[in-house]
Amino acid sequence: MTKPPVRSSASLRHRLAERGIDSQLLLLVPAVVFALLLFVYPFAYGIGLTFQPLERTQEQWGGGFFSNYLAFFQDPFLFDSVWITMRLAIPAALFNVIISIPIAFKLRGKFRGKRLMSTLLVLPITLGTVLTAQGLLIFAGRQGWLNRFLLETGIISEPLQLVNNYLGVMFSLVISGFPFAYLLISSYLSGIDPSLEAAAKTLGANWRQRFRRVTLPLLAPGLATTFILTFVLAFSVFPSARLVGDPGGDTRVMALMAYRAFGEQQDYAMASTIAIMMGLVELVIIGFVLFGRSFLYKGSTGGKG
Predict the structure, then answer these.
(1) pLDDT of the residue at 305
(2) What does the chain look like in DSSP terms, one character per residue?
(3) What is the pLDDT of residue 272?
(4) What is the pLDDT of residue 280?
């Protein structure tokens, strides 16, 4: 004869607390509501819009509910914006990461004027993309200071075309993205124990060997994270592509295509489709970078970033 189960004398509150459920979880409610209202719901609503194409889109491309996606992949004017955006975002992110490494190395030690130098390097964060673009137009435009100086000194005979093209947007992305890359890499470097490099030096390793075998493996996760963040920042470029680029040509980025569909064509469904495709492309690049990072180093990050 089986005995009846013994009921716990502990209160329900104590039993829940043993499972990690207590009144402190109520503090998460505002964050959950915030995420639902400002991220989950708009995201789900945007996905729903992509399956509600306009009649003219269905008539031109067919496909019923999938007309927006067919239009995106079959219309060269839209689909080429993917490669145009990546041709800007990937080089800008790579350049910002690569150039930040030696600068962060140089500034990680203590020396006079370090704070001033660090302040100057991160100052572009306070400018914003619009002010950065305006500064580029004033400095590097056809009638800007740089071209006037070069013309008056006889170095060039015609103004250089440094803005309103691919170069103008690239300059803007580098200026606005470098401070983030520098701060992140500096943070990771500050968490690497200097005694590791000192030990390698006592064993006869030169600075190249110390960097390749000691510092780089420890810094690799931080470099991957830095690249991802700067890439996402550059991939969503909009003001620079419009102000110092060629919106209808070689800087026809995806954000501009989404704005064109939303603001000019009043095609909210297509604008949502482009936005969803932007997110998918970013996820693919992020996944590729994280997968590649696993082959470089599988230990702890070694940094504080």
Answers:
(1) 42
(2) -PPPPPPP-S-HHHHHHHTT-SGGGGGGHHHHHHHIIIIIHHHHHHHHHHTS--HHHHHHH--GGGHHHHHHHH-HHHHHHHHHHHHHHHHHHHHHHHHHHHHHHHHSS--TTHHHHHHHHHGGGGTHHHHHHHHHHHHHSTTSHHHHHHHHTTS-SS----SSSHHHHHHHHHHHHHHHHHHHHHHHHHTS-HHHHHHHHHTT--HHHHIIIIIHHHHHHHHHHHHHHHHHHHHT--HHHHHSS-TTTTT--HHHHHHIIIIIS--HHHHHHHHHHHHHHHHHHHHHHHHHHHHH--S---S--
(3) 94
(4) 94
Q: How far is CA 156 from CA 149, 168, 267, in A?
A: 9, 19, 46
User: Burial of 105 by CB count in 10 Å (0-12 exposed, 13-18 middle, 19+ buried)?
Assistant: middle
Residue with tokens 């964060």: 125
pTM higher than 0.85: no
User: How many Cβ atoms sit within 10 Å of the Cβ of residue 291?
Assistant: 10
- For tokens 């996905």, name the residue: 47
Tokens of 216: 């780089």
Q: What's the 3-state SS for 15-44?
A: HHHHCCCCHHHHHHHHHHHHHHHHHHHHHH
Domains and CATH numbers, the chain: 89-249+279-296 (1.10.3720.10)
Chain-centroid distance of CA 259 in Å reads 19
Measured CA angle at 186 (ends 184, 191), to 5 deg: 100
Question: Nearest CA to 46 among 282, 284, 268, 280?
Answer: 268
Of 255, 271, 240, which Cα lies nearest the Cα of 169? 240
Residues in the chain with pLDDT < 50?
9, 301-305
